[in-house]
């Protein structure tokens, strides 16, 4: 990375129940280029589907002060959802190590304060408008109803 490049992390998830061989989110991420327009360096990470690993990796990512972090998750929707937020609750499921969150809640902090929901400052509605018409494939939609799987955690 040179001094002029901005760091962008893009994460995909590792295998989990029902997708033991391959997780489509990681397959999509690893196909991304390593740089965009020579201005952005993409650091791609495969994240194990465990609460403990997610906590550690997210903490490590933010210590590097990236320009942007994009977490990619795949589910059964027939479109790409650009999520606006991540709630603190609604995570009742077990991870691949059969661990769960106490009370199904995440501990979220936003600028050092506890919060019940994290929201991006990006205008995801505008992103959908600008990118959606340029994508040859599934539709892209704005979403505020993140799924209750670990990818939403």
UniProtKB/TrEMBL annotation:
Pfam families: Peptidase_C15. It comes from the Eukaryota. InterPro entries: Peptidase_C15-like, Peptidase_C15-like_sf. One of its GO terms (biological process) is proteolysis. One of its GO terms (molecular function) is cysteine-type peptidase activity. Keywords: Hydrolase, Protease, Thiol protease. The keyword GTP-binding does not apply. The keyword Protease applies. Belongs to the peptidase C15 family. This is Pyroglutamyl-peptidase I. It comes from Megaselia scalaris.
């Amino acid at each position: 990375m040179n001094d002029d490049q901005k760091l962008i992390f893009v994460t995909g998830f590792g295998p989990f129940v029902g997708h033991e061989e391959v997780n489509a989110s990681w397959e999509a991420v690893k196909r991304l280029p390593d740089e965009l327009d020579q201005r952005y360096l993409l650091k791609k990470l495969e994240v194990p589907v465990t609460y403990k690993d997610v906590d550690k990796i997210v903490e490590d990512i933010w210590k590097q002060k990236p320009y942007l972090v994009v977490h990619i998750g795949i589910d059964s929707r027939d479109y790409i959802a650009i999520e606006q937020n991540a709630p603190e609750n609604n995570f009742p499921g077990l991870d691949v190590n059969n661990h769960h969150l106490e009370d199904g809640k995440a501990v979220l902090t936003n600028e050092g304060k506890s919060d019940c929901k994290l929201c991006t400052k990006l205008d995801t509605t505008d992103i959908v408008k600008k990118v959606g018409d340029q994508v040859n494939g599934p539709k892209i939609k704005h979403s505020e109803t993140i799924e209750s799987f670990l990818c939403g955690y």
